[in-house]
Amino acid sequence: xxxxxxxxxxxxxxxxxxxxQHKNKRNAFKNGAAAILYASNGKAIPVSASPNxxxxxxxxxxxxxMYQTWxxxxxxxxxxxxKRILTGVRTEVDIMLNGKFExxxxxxxxxxxxxxxxxxxxPCFFQRPVVLAAVFRSKEVLKFILNQGADIYLNxxxxxxxxxxxxxxxxxxxxxxxEYKKIYRMITDSLSRQEQKSLxxxxxxxxxxxxxxxxxxxxxxxxxxxxNTEGVYVHNKGRLGAYVCKWYDVTDYExxxxxxxxxxxxxxxxxxxxxxxxxxxxxxxxxLNNKAISKWIDIKIQSNTxxxxxxxxxxxxxxxxxLVYANSxxxxxxxxxxxxxxxxxxxxxxxxxxxxxxxxxxxNLTDVAILHVAYVIIVPILLVNFLIAxxxxxxxxxxENRYLIMALQRLNAALQVESRFGMHISVLxxxxxxxLLVTAEGRVYVECFALKEDEQ
Length: 456
What we know:
The chain is an alpha+beta fold. It has a domain at 10-207: Serine Threonine Protein Phosphatase 5, Tetratricopeptide repeat (Alpha Horseshoe). The chain is built from 24 helices and 9 strands. It has a 4-stranded antiparallel β-sheet. Strands 1-2-3 form a 3-stranded antiparallel β-sheet, with no helix packed on it. Strand 6 (234-240) and strand 7 (243-249) form a beta hairpin. Helix 9 packs antiparallel against helix 10 (177-189). The longest helix is centred in the C-terminal third of the chain and has 27 residues, at 365-391. It is elongated. The chain starts with 9 loop residues before the first helix and ends in a 5-residue tail after the last strand.
């Protein structure tokens, strides 16, 4: 197995160099159901099955009351205590490495059952030692237990693997997102390309891969770190002066294959970002400055421009036809009908009445006129507020916020139109793929040029 590429953070990568050496000595049993990791002393320690197989691992539970010192060592990143505890046991090594902590242990079995059932609704429940070490940012203990044969492919609560758990940790503690990004790189640098892909392509109980979960939880720095994983999502294709040519693999989201993940595309998830999150500097930095994401969004919008125009005209035509129909078919007195035939306000009133919008208290033309006057008054006020904001010291920030919101609104409109016109029509996706790179093997890529610093 070839060693993975070395990251810029050599101090981080060197931490896991011994793991790479141990992983090169891994062999499989004859039945292929398990593997052996040979430690430096030649002792065989059972670890996971093939990384391509679903990993559920040991369901052996460790009551916190009995394993409190082991849990504390993981939480506090106490390497010496972890070594002493693990070397002091003989028969429970595999349980302590790959089991699950039972955090609430009751002597009454019925209480245990009730507690387990209640906590199934938690979004992500961290129980396995290797996952807890990653979530607690305990780098030394994480390195140690992986060296001892902890199964990195085991799923935790909600079928989240260790990468899902890191994303959840960054979402729950956003102030430490850069630390979680370093831990992610520590883990992936110790794995082969195939093993990285096995972790990153695995879905949790919600059907989300780590990249999609990062988009959903708006952990953007970690999202970019995952999206820049070489050999999985990104492929370097040479240099052009000071720039690096990169191909980002978006085949799963932009193909017409029946197994396509179009509905779980990060772009589609981005359209549901809350406005409060859009005002964060990290969001603007990722969405506006990251060349791969911004180009992907632009391609999506440009490919649907004609469809957007057609859809807009169709909606306007439908509205006008509805008004004409309402104007000619609503039963009222002759005098009022004569007035309606030349009145846009009356047509609007009729349409609202036909739609039974009685809660708006719109029963006559006067009410409609009042609404029009209110609209005419409110719009200038909003425009004045916008101009005041532009003239303030935060002009660049306001402009970025406005631009980002408008970009996501256009993206949302493009995706909506794409759905309306049929997601399975090959012509639609051909217009998108014409602006992307499609290889002979059918892989679809976003091509962009970036400085080397953009990789980080």
